[in-house]
């Protein structure tokens, strides 16, 4: 065993001495010249196979998550029907406000827990082991929800407490996965340098990390939305058979998720946990306010000249200072997202309830939410293969700030349109002329543009947010910065919770108008404040480990990775 461990250690040391992220060596071709940057198109690199395995994990998890949550609003809001198929499926009969409050709480909880998962990953277990741990917790919650939704459990009052317990456990499990799976998929791509490549047709292009990460996160988000189509099946099962088979289907689908996590463990690129990263970042931020000169003065190279007594005790290197500064700038960008997510969250509860008051024919009211992922499944590959490449050929590179601005704009437009539809609903007569009827004489097809506009907002706003969170975070803080981005969703859920009191007739028109108006204001302010940052995006992304300086901090990280791999081999 000792010989095997030594062989692995030697191989790891050799890998670090040739790692392009540390040495800055060319990968695939020469670095582009300034003239080539002007003349050649920018393209993404080939996505590694291991990245597709991580996308498969996310597909299975999202299949389970959306398959479960798709029927939540009806499960909570409406009473248990006497038989199935049912005109209006339900189980717990808690009403619109309670249903909206609980689904909003669930959204809130799902975006608090990524912080816990990020801390566990970045400081203790690493991303892979953290995903494995939280997957097990997730599965326990899924089983509780399924078992307490069977008819005998509903009849004996076990369904509601079972539902509450399962919400807490599932939210905890999904949060731990969320914080780590998107950084893990991006880590499968290792090149950090742009290079010139000649295609088979003789055409020369520049392969860049920026375009590649955009491509990876497009594929990742595409996998999410393919998985989310499970709610089509579960809402049909809910209407025609009952809630227990609607929950059983995603429960069974979670088994392949666990299998992919376990069987693919040898194929993933895994970065070890840093350990003291939060302490280190805290000390650096504290020092930044104690000495003049900002972050630049806190670099070990600068401290060695100005404060040698401090320089002797710091544990970070010059590059970590630049990385942390870049990450803090990213967190400022995230501060604008809660209003955007407040628009998005409406499609998971209030728009479902809105559809229940409209004519839906023979389809369940909560099936309408699947228009959003269907549009995304079509448009994400289109933008990746045609839209963005065409814009790049025209000299329009659509850097992150511009894309996020467009995302905010489409979200505001969606809420403005939804407000108009709600006004039409109030003016429409009740179906059959019965003033006591539930349905209005207006087709739920009017909702389609609301979902289409939200889908376009995700292409530009949500996907870019994931990409931005990964690219701007230091290597040792990928999970925590991703968790902070996801936490903006949590703030939006808190805002939505505050709006529950106005999520009732006849106030809904004004609620949608207010949300849409707030997002429109945010759109303008965001672009005015941040648009110049697109000019430095590529330069900031190039911050990394240069081959000329391998600092003490880098060697510590290299040794940490070596020890981590040796420990895995020994076990």
Radius of gyration, taken over Cα atoms and rounded to an integer in Å: 25 Å
CATH superfamily: MFS general substrate transporter like domains
Order of helices and strands: HHHEHHHHHHEEHHHHHHHHHHHHHHHH
Q: SS-based structural class?
A: mainly alpha
| Name of the CATH class | Mainly Alpha
Major sheet description: 3 strands, mixed
Mean pLDDT: 83
Q: In words, what does this structure look like?
A:
This protein has helices at 2-17, 20-23, 34-39, 49-69, 72-77, 95-125, 127-147, 151-155, 159-187, 209-228, 230-240, 243-263, 277-290, 300-306, 308-311, 318-334, 337-345, 350-356, 371-393, 400-427, 448-472, 478-498, 508-530, 537-541, 552-570; strands at residues 42-43, 195-198, 204-207. It is an all-alpha fold and 571 residues long. It has one domain (33-276, 315-543): MFS general substrate transporter like domains (Growth Hormone, Chain: A). A hairpin with a 5-residue loop joins strand 2 and strand 3 (204-207). Helix 4 (49-69) runs antiparallel to helix 12.
Characterize this entry briefly:
This protein is an all-alpha fold and 571 residues long.
Task: Write a concise keyword list for the protein shown above.
571 residues, mainly alpha, Growth Hormone, Chain: A, 3 strands, 2% strand, globular, disordered N terminus
